[in-house]
Amino acid sequence: MDKTNDDKPSDGSRRQFIGYGAAMAGLAIAPGVTLFDLAHGRAPEEAASNKVRWGMLIDTGKCASGCNDCVSACGKENGFSGSRETDSQWIRKVEIKDLRNGQSHSLPMMCQHCEHPPCVDVCPTGASFKRADGIVLVDRHICIGCRYCMMACPYKARSFVHEELHDQNPDVPRGKGCVESCTLCVHRVDKGGQPACAEACSEAGHNAILFGDLNDQNSEISKRVTKLATTQVRADLGLNVGIRYQGI
Q1: What is the 3-state secondary structure (H, E, C) of the chain?
Q2: Distance CA 50, CA 40 (A)
Q3: pTM for the full model?
Q4: Could you tell me how far CA 130 lies from the centroid of its own chain?
Q5: What is the pLDDT of residues 21-30, one digit of tens each?
Q6: Which of 40, 73, 115, 119 lies at a CB distance of 3.0 to 4.6 Å from 240, suitable for a disulfide?
């Protein structure tokens, strides 16, 4: 997991504050999970590249109302069941209706991995950050659970972990007292895979979620975004999100 130089603390007082925040988080983290178990997969010395911009294109015409395959896959991969009221939800299905023609659409909503993420702007410790390849993450080492990022996110895509967690995926360590959101399954992506939601959607034959490199002109997602009419949710905010929708 890598940060750009701009994400690093710049003075002694900030480092002191971050250290204090990390100590607070350490008191609340789940048993058996160390503060240094960040979601990983990529070798520490291998930096993310800004030549890549990971993103998704979601075809709402193929996303069926009532289908939760992507939601279930996300929960299984990242260690939450959705059975408790306080469980995190990194991806959710929403139903929208066009009042002009009455047409309804069902679509998954998750962190939009903004180029200019408001969650990063308001984070007092630098825990919310954007990698060079566009993936927006939370560094649990220094998240103090203030939840400013949750208030700043226009997509309501972040969750706060209220309770102790057990039986976690070692590649996706999570902890009580931290804020979290969709990581685009960075631990899979760094190994050359794709997010669990996209894989599940494809394996079920829906093919509504396409994952890939938006910067690669030869990638399928880039070709389709160039050729087809796509939508950025709340494009008026100018966040240049990495999740695009087709059909709305």
Answers
A1: CCCCHHHCCCCHHHHHHHHHHHHHHHHHCCCCCCCCCCCCCCCCCCCCCCCCCEEEEEECCCCCCCCCHHHHHHHHHHCCCCCCCCCCCCEEEEEEECCCCCCEEEEEEECCCCCCCHHHHHCCCCCEEECCCCCEEECCCCCCCCCHHHHHCCCCCCEECCCCCCCCCCCCCCCCCCEECCCCCHHHHCCCCCCHHHHHHHHCCCCCEEEEECCCCCCHHHHHHHHCCEECCCHHHCCCCCEEEECC
A2: 18
A3: 0.80
A4: 10
A5: 333 333 333 3
A6: 115
